[in-house]
């Protein structure tokens, strides 16, 4: 059974110098976070020398497994030549071409540093392009930690009881209309009432920050139709699903054509990245072609772009997405079989899944209230003691990489069913 003595000591130290002892609230969990220091393939290792099969995968990016040799070599080659020029580079051009090649809705992109920056900039562009201020998002949808979207936000914001953050100006929060996910009637009636004032609808194609909740039939298509009819933009937040559910993201899988797309996580091969893009007609409004301002010292950083280009090539050449999808199907079906009779529901698509401690189907953010959050905390800790690292909250997704072995999946299922019998 794993013990966490050194993590506990480090948490005492970190609380004196880091807010809450962490650099992101999503990493804060009870009784104290486990401090990691090493990784290889499907495994991560903590400061006490414990080994874990990792299903958090850095909150998503590591579909390749940790420390993939090709991404490592690409980064090392770039390090030999420099890691920050603040100038244009050929690699930025190569990356932009690769992204447009795989996303038919994208003519032009801008590369930034995080998903947060990508969605923040895409919303500014949507507002600048339409000349409207209001945006629509969905309850429990998480699009990063910036003001317009920290309104009924999922992920860490919900886990820590702050879906509406103090500090967001009321006047700005009022411009964000929040609707229930998958509720076609509410969406239609908002557009009928104030469609002409809505700059855009921003949505994750598959809900990923209030557990994994796929769209109901026709819901994304309805967003597409209404936004087109009322002259609003459809901003598809593919920070989680981009380069994960297929090379062309969820838009390829579902046959959608959004106006703007945001990417991150897998797109950076594990390096910090955000990308947003769309058709030239809209993108030309961005500075320096247009007057919607957006800029960044580290945007298109050479190390990140080197990792990203290699990651995208690798995804295709090694057929990583299909392989990871098959692992995802396997773990979901095995877990569901193993927990029959317990109030547990494993849902998801592709290489992502949620273990809801609840016997009913979860269709929206409100349904999560039916889940047993106290039991999940114990489940998370007991799994870690038994060598399986899960995301620390039921709001966050579990991810599987293409290098997780069948043996690891079997072991995980056996451990999870034993632990769940104990904690429920
Ligand atoms: N959009 C979605 C759908 C996300 O899940 C996240 C982060 O989890 C973001 C945006 C923000 O990305 P980042 O954490 O890289 O800023």
Automatic annotation (TrEMBL):
Main location class: cytoplasm
EC number: 5.4.3.8
Pfam family, one: Aminotran_3
Residue numbers carrying N6-(pyridoxal phosphate)lysine: 265
Keyword Transferase found: yes
Localization per record: Cytoplasm
Catalytic activity: (S)-4-amino-5-oxopentanoate = 5-aminolevulinate
Alphabetical GO biological process terms: protoporphyrinogen IX biosynthetic process
Database matches in PROSITE patterns: AA_TRANSFER_CLASS_3
Alphabetically ordered keywords of this record: Aminotransferase, Cytoplasm, Isomerase, Porphyrin biosynthesis, Pyridoxal phosphate, Transferase
GO terms under cellular component: cytoplasm
Cofactor(s) annotated in UniProt: pyridoxal 5'-phosphate
Signal peptide range: none
Coiled coil: none
Entry's Gene Ontology molecular function annotations: glutamate-1-semialdehyde 2,1-aminomutase activity; pyridoxal phosphate binding; transaminase activity
Keyword Manganese: no
Biochemical pathway: Porphyrin-containing compound metabolism; protoporphyrin-IX biosynthesis; 5-aminolevulinate from L-glutamyl-tRNA(Glu): step 2/2
NCBIfam families: hemL (TIGR00713), PRK00062.1 (NF000818)
Record-stated family: Belongs to the class-III pyridoxal-phosphate-dependent aminotransferase family. HemL subfamily.
Protein name (database record): Glutamate-1-semialdehyde 2,1-aminomutase
